[in-house]
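Entry 14: structure prediction run for Excisionase family DNA binding protein. Input pasted below.
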Amino acid sequence: MTTHDDLRLADGSAANHHAGEATTPPLDTPDAGRVRDTLLLHTPAQVARVLSVRESWLRRMAGRREIPCTFLGKHLRFSEADLRAIVRRGARPARGDASRADRPVTRPPGSRRR
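Run finished. Output tokens:
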């Protein structure tokens, strides 16, 4: 069983927590699979670490309601379904090199290649 003293981030540093608050291991640790099933919601810091994005980006996009999230009062949280939706939202189809090679290069009239 993981105790508060055992909580470590991926870089080996101790996880910070506020006194009296329940803490969980980061989502990118070996214990995450076992713990993730019991977690209902994740903090912006946890999600930013997992998705490799800035926490400020998550907060800004959530504030604009451009990504799925949950507000518990003023506290921002993300569910597993929210994370999957954020990743799906950012997915782009691959463009093969063949599709670019087949297209002729077009330039506006009067423009020259530098």
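Notes: Strands lie at 70-72, 75-77. Will compare against the previous run tomorrow.
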